[in-house]
């Protein structure tokens, strides 16, 4: 996948430049975009198939999808076998790595809460889908706030785990975020909460 973020070099161009650089002298990024692109090989969060549960294995409950009333073309951050309630026929697991795979159509994203920034950037660049994210003071939250089509805050949410529903809600409130017109319309008709 070659992605050009508007300025600077494409990911492929940076890799090519890196190979052409002196073996003894690492390529130094000229700006934040180049630094992000140079790091993106290291940002592969899914280097191997998932074999055991991690702290990021919490699944969106069915009532969220019922309220949205949408069918998604792709779940970009799915557990092995797909999310138990996500209405989609296609999904990326750790084996397919949604960060490096090509996204298409109307997507669902419940990214790893441990490191959401690269997922948020790709979600916004794709511009057609719905995401569930936690409240945060991180850089990615500002990026999402400034660029998403719409937001609605969820009531306290009890996620599901591979063993069934979790007994407690997570401490942070979560948001449903829309990217694109279809997603915004789904959010507005869902009546989950006030859309901003």
Structural features, described:
The chain is an alpha/beta fold and 196 residues long. It folds into 2 domains: 1-42, no CATH class; 62-190, Rossmann fold, CATH 3.40.50. It is 28% helix and 13% strand. It is built from 6 helices and 7 strands. The strands form 2 sheets. It has a 5-stranded mixed sheet with strand order 1-2-3-7-4. It has a two-stranded antiparallel sheet with strand order 5-6. Helix 4 (117-126) links the parallel strand 2 (107-109) and strand 3 (129-134). The radius of gyration is 18 Å and the shape is globular. The chain starts with 10 loop residues before the first helix and ends in a 6-residue tail after the last helix. Mean pLDDT is 75; it is low at 1-29 and 31-55.
CATH A-level architecture of the largest domain: 3-Layer(aba) Sandwich
User: What count of helical segments does DSSP give?
Assistant: 6
Number of strands: 7
General form: globular
Helix fraction by DSSP (H/I, runs of at least 4): 25-40%
Radius of gyration computed on alpha carbons: 18 Å
Query: Pairing-aware structural class of the strands and helices?
Result: alpha/beta
Low-confidence segments? 1-29, 31-55
Report the sheet-strand fraction: 5-15%
The CATH class of the largest domain: Alpha Beta
The number of domains is 2
CA-CA gap between termini: 33 Å
Per the CATH scheme, the topology name of the largest domain is Rossmann fold
* Biggest sheet overview: 5 strands, mixed
